[in-house]
Structure formats: structure tokens, C-alpha cells
Amino acid sequence: MLRIIQAAAFCFALIILIGPGPVTAQNQPSVYVKTVAVKTQQVSVTLDAYGKITPSNDETTVLSVSHAGVITRVWVRLGQKVERGTKLINLDTSPAARAEYQQAQTAVTYARQALARQKRLKAEQLTTTDQVNAASKVLKDAEDRLAALKQLGQSKSHEVLMAPLDGVITRLDVMQGQRIQADATTVQIASEDHLKAMLGVEPADAKRIKIGDNVSLEQVFSRSGSVAGQVENIHAMINPATRLVDVLVEIPEKSTEQLMIGGVVKGQISLSSYTALTIPGTAVLTDGEGDYVFIVTGGIARRKNVQIGLATSDFVEIKSSLKPGEKVVILGNYELKDGMPVRESQP
Q1: How many other β-carbons are positioned within 10 Å of the β-carbon of residue 88?
Q2: Which of 149, 187, 189, 340 has an alpha carbon 20 to 30 Å from 116's alpha carbon atom?
Q3: What stretches in the chain show pLDDT beneath 50?
Q4: Domains held by the chain: number
Q5: Which of 240, 137, 258 is nearest to 195 (CA)?
Q6: Does 264 share its domain with 199?
Q7: Which of 99-115 are b and which e, b meaning 16 or more Cβ less than 10 Å from the residue's Cβ?
Q8: What are the backbone dihedrals phi and psi of residue 136, each rounded to the nearest 5 degrees, phi first?
Q9: Which residues contact 11 (CB under 8 A, 6 or more apart)?
Q10: Model pLDDT, residue 10
């Protein structure tokens, strides 16, 4: 028994003198990680902008009255949807406009009588050809004036304005009982089938946009999905109301059913597209030396400093250090140090 105790004491003393053996990669504790391969894909640089849906100027009609009068009935309201031929406004011609037309009628009657008298006198050689011609000109001028007043509607005591197209009332400038002057605007109607998006961008960003750039539009207060469009025009001045540059986006007619005039939209403008190396954003870590990732080679994690480019919610562009197909750690990387053994999760 004494010999056993002496042998144990000798071994313990020997361990203390020699020290523990070296730790190798084989007996280090390994970390469980998840990896993905670095891949090559097409990425797009985009610019976000907000704005609203507006009707196309080509499909917008402004109705005005050609003569003074009184609005006796308004059949529509602002924002109302109307069809071609719908009654919009009743208008009574003003007494002054009616009197002007009646005076023009009297002038034509008098001019005709004067011309007839000049022709009789000419037949009796009591007047000259010049006087007959002058009377003919007076009659022609009187008839032209009467025709013009008739075209302006002053021949009618009452008039009804009708919708010339299917659309939406986007402007209503009159009310019942209102007196209006000639050429006053009454109603504006815009087609729902031809819409545009007016987006506002910072002046510095406007220089990065080109006509024809693709745009993805999404209504801010609706879940109707996105609509594709293209940049049609970039304004060359700052909008004084918003202090932004207006960018007009053309929307295909087939997509207008999802949109509403006046709706607020978010536009994502595609500025450029190119091929890049990408990895998930969870693979990138940052410390005092900058951005870095861990790659796995032969069961060992190796740190690599990287330079990142475009970052989105789906991926991060890598501009240096990595190659396609290399495996980067996306889960468990916070526990790693350079050279640590790892165990990869199986797909």
C-alpha cells in the first residue's frame, strides 16, 4: 500500500514539473456554425422617392363657358366619377350677352336692307359700284359677327355643359347661383386610364437619373402591390413648394386600375445594374479594424477583412478578399476567433 502511495505522489510531482501537454486543433472545443457560399449575382443601385399619382395632361379636359352667365345648377361634385354625356352644369346666359346677340341680329337685318337699296339705286344709275361694294362689306361683317356670337352660345338663353369623356372631376370652380364671366373655367375632367407619378428627389440625386430608367411604384397607404413604370421626364428646376426636383414617371395603361388619382406612392428608381459578389448581411462583423467575415476551410474558421459596397435587406456586396464559392459563416460567427475549429450544420 505504501508503494502505491509513493508511486502516485511521484506521478503528481512529475506532472507539476513537466506541465500540461500542448493543446492542438484536434482537442480544442469546436463551435457549431452555419455557412453559405459566396455567390455572384446582378445587383441594382436604386433611389427611393415619394410623390403622388396625377392624371396625364393629354387626357385631361378643362371646360369653360364662352359667354357670361349665371350657374343655375351644378350636377357633380369634386372627385366624382362621370361618364361621357353626363350633365355637369346648367348655365343661363346673362341678359347683356343676350342683348348683344339681338343687336347683332338687328345689324344683319339693317345691312341686308341697305344693300338691297343700294342695288336698286345702282340699277337706276343713282349710285356707284363702290357704294354697292361697301354695303356688301357691311353686311358680310354683320353676318360674321352674328355667327361668332352664335358659336359662343349667346343665341341660347339656357345651356347645359356635358362631360366630353369618361373620367373623374379633378377640379370644380363654380357653385349654384354664381355669376361667371366669359372664358371662366368651370370643370376639369381627367381620364383614369392615363396616369403619371410625380416623384420628388433631391437636386443632387436628380443628376443620377436618366429618362427611361425603370421605376417600381408602391402605394403608401395600400397593399395593392407594386406597379412598374419608366422615367418620362426630369424637370430642370426645383419645385418651390417641395424644394425637390420633380421626376415624371409613365405608368402603363394596364396598371392604372391599381392606382388612384391623388394617391401617395413610393417610387424605387433603378439607377444602374451590374454583377457583384454577395453574401448575407449576417455574415459581416465589425471591430476596430473594420468589416470582416469568417470563412471555413478544412473545418477551421479564418478571419478575412473585407470591403463592402451596396447593402440591402437581402444581401451585402463584397468588393474585396472573397471569391465565388468560398463558405462564409452566417450563424455562430460572434463566438469565433481566427483559427478555431468549427462544425458546420448540414443542409
Answers
A1: 23
A2: 149
A3: 1-25
A4: 4
A5: 258
A6: yes
A7: ebbeebeebbeebeebb
A8: -65, -40
A9: none
A10: 45
Q: Which long-range contacts (CB under 8 A, 24 or more apart) does 183-187 make?
A: 183/64, 183/65, 183/66, 184/64, 184/65, 185/62, 185/63, 185/64, 186/63, 186/64, 186/65, 186/71, 186/88, 186/89, 186/161, 187/62, 187/63, 187/76, 187/88, 187/89, 187/161
Backbone φ and ψ for 120, nearest 5 degrees, come out as -65, -40
pLDDT tens-digit readout, 283-340: 999 999 999 999 999 999 999 999 998 888 889 999 988 999 999 999 999 989 999 9
Residue 46 grid coordinates:
436604386
pLDDT of 95 reads 83
Place of cell 476567433: 337
Beta strands in 58-191 (DSSP E): 60-64, 69-74, 81-82, 87-93, 158-162, 167-172, 179-180, 185-190
Question: What pLDDT is recorded for position 25?
Answer: 46
pLDDT of 346: 67
Q: Which of 273, 298, 333 is the C-terminal boundary of a domain? A: 273
Where residue 319 sits, what CATH number does that domain have? 2.40.420.20
In whole angstroms, give the CA distance from residue 329 to residue 133.
102
Q: State the Cα–Cα distance between residues 327 and 331, nearest whole angstrom.
A: 12
C-alpha distance from residue 281 to each of 37, 293, 313, 316 (Å): 13, 10, 8, 5
Cell of 76: 357633380
The pLDDT of residue 259: 83
The pLDDT score that the predictor gives to residue 294 is: 96
C-alpha cell at 222: 395600400
| Residues 212 and 228 both lie in one domain | yes
Q: Which residue has the cell 361683317?
A: 141
Q: Would residue 10 count as lying in a domain? A: no
